[in-house]
Amino acid sequence: AAGTASGAPPPTPPRSGPLFSEGAGPSGSHRATRPSAGEASSSDGMPKLAAMERGRAMKQNRPVKIGKPKRGIKPMTKAGGALPARGAGRVTCTKESNVPIAKRLAEFPDSGLIEAPPGKLFCAACKTPLKNILGTLKTHCGSESHKEKLVRYVEVTKDDTFIKQFMREYFTEHPDEKCASLSDEQHLHRFRIVASMLKAGVAINKVDELRPVLERDGHAITAASHLAGYIPKIETLEHDKLGGELEGQYVEVIYDGSPRHGEAIVVILRWVQASEDGWSVQMRLVAFRTLVEHPTGAQLAQFIFAVLLTTLKLKPWQIIASARDSASVNGACERALVGLLPALQDILCISHTVAKCGEHVELPTLEQFMTSWLQIVQHHQAAKTTWKGMIGKAMVGFSTIRWCSRDECANELARNFGQLGAFLQALIDKEIGDALPKKMIQIYNSKRAVLEAELACSLDLERLIRLVYRMEGDGLLVLLARSEIEAALAWGETVGDDQSSLPNVAAVLRKNTTLKVGVKTYEYYGEPYNSHYVGKVKRIDRGGKVLVTYPGFGADNDVLLEPHEAVQAVDVRELAEWQRLSAAAKAGIEYLRKRLTGECDRIYDCSQMYEMLRLVQVFDPSFAAQFATPAWVDALSSIPPLEPLVEKLKEELPEYLVKCQGVSYDHGDVAAFTDAVLLFWANNGSKFPTWARAMQIVGTFTPSSAAAERVFSMLKLMFGHLQASSLADMIQAALMLRYNKRRVA
Fold first, then answer.
1. By the 8 A CB rule, do 678 and 281 touch?
2. Distance in angstroms (rounded) separating the CA atoms of residues 231 and 194
3. 310-326, pLDDT tens digit by residue?
4. Dihedral sign, CA of 283, 287, 290, 296?
5. How many Cβ atoms from other residues are within 10 Å of residue 51's Cβ?
6. Which of 249, 417, 640, 695 could form a disulfide with 343 if both were Cys (CB 3.0 to 4.6 A apart)?
């Protein structure tokens, strides 16, 4: 308006849009910016855009900081750079020397340098051109970055040579197969393209759209239908590579099946690799197969034998253990395996066992509520957005694959129970979820106290969830599992008797308890008493203060408490709701105890495995320093693969104990613990070789079959519904390349 009054034209509005906005940054340069969540919704009624609809923020170079020049440095030049003064370490542009490229390559042998293009130097390891200057080449080849990349380059070059030889031999035997006349380089290029797409989970038929860019390096490729012929070759080569890795190793076979993806079987091998570079735990996916129908135990065992003995050519003595869950078909399979491999150590998945405890904790009101809640979580994006707006963080998702996912969702509700009613009302007001919010708010309004108490009970059982996930890893959990389980069982013994065993339940029940005369209290008094005392409410004053008396003591010992202090002192152990919830929690712990002591059906019996977990703790040097004795070593004979080694282990025990003295590890960090124990055995194993050999056997054991579950999660991630009809060799090859972390480029 001011511009119009003065006769000047109105100012031109700045250029703006979803990708660009005019404006000077701190350096005075224009930057591409992305509108924030608040900017995405304007005042003219436009809808608020989702994150995926906003513009992309483009990364910018850092602005050059212009400051006072240092001594000996010339002021900033117009081009934005600074040159050191003469005599102050000034770097001048040096021309490339006339030394022939061939001579330079001879001066730096085995350094990854090549001539490309003709007359120019190129570092194939770092993928960068270099100037023909001696100092530059020395600096580059001496850098740590180059040395690391050179190691990878040498490995890839060996792989390339191996692939070329494999393809040459294959097409020599199959000269009539299509593409047999191609050169080694063309086969290698196509092989790498197909392997890269498989590992990335990209459908092979998309190569037709990518063909123009893939052919830019000068190698012609063919249609996707012809490239698919490389998939069986990739699969065969992977099995050949696995055979070389597994030669002479003790292995544990981890297997599982799943009806979620049709009928699928996963087989994984685990072993401890002892090499000059140190000791390490290795995991490899060796088979993934889909079936027409659910297999029997005998059929599953036959399939595993075919993979291990025929495809991978393992010797029976190499197969020393198996890990699986307690499904009945896996139990039948295990009996068939043990029949042919009598030295096989059977290991039931402890994560699966502990996760099953939740099925024995009866919380009926919570179960009724969660049935509707999980449908909201799974299917209604608007409900998730509303939750995030109210709570401030995203809603915990629900997965049918992830153990304890349902309990995690319940625990999120427990932590945000104060806002649950408002959230349900918001869903109803926005007409989100049809009848589901009405069902949930009816439960919430009519059984609020019960629902809150049951959610608190679920939250107190979270330590079992932490145990499930802690036992999922690939480290040396076999040495830690026994102490972790014993701690959970010890806590379970206190449930119901000690209010601190279920602190959230106790807090909720106290909050919901009405203070009145006769209500019992339970408090701890320090010096000089140092004991808990049971009292009861004697009187409530008009001001709300509560007089508590203690039977057996005189009136002089009565205590006057503030209302909030009295609430905290209520003895919830006498409440019927406490007894119900503590009994529910104890039922889950009791299920675990019976599984571990063998007081259950044979197929669920974990007692032998539980004893094995106790005995193998002696291979933790920090544990052995305190508890290893000849009698303990004698007990190791109950572990089939270790039975032939027991006498030698007793002979070498004194030397082992000498090295164990003073050793201490952090058992709370599984990764650090695993690295430290493996380093101990790498440094000292040669001094007591039988113990080192036994440790390689024990190190293969894992108390969990979670590795197989991760393959199913990987399958879901890599193969969507559009690839549901993919052939078995493609699925297996893709999963093996991804799981086994192969370099494919």
1. yes
2. 7
3. 999 999 999 999 999 88
4. negative
5. 7
6. 640
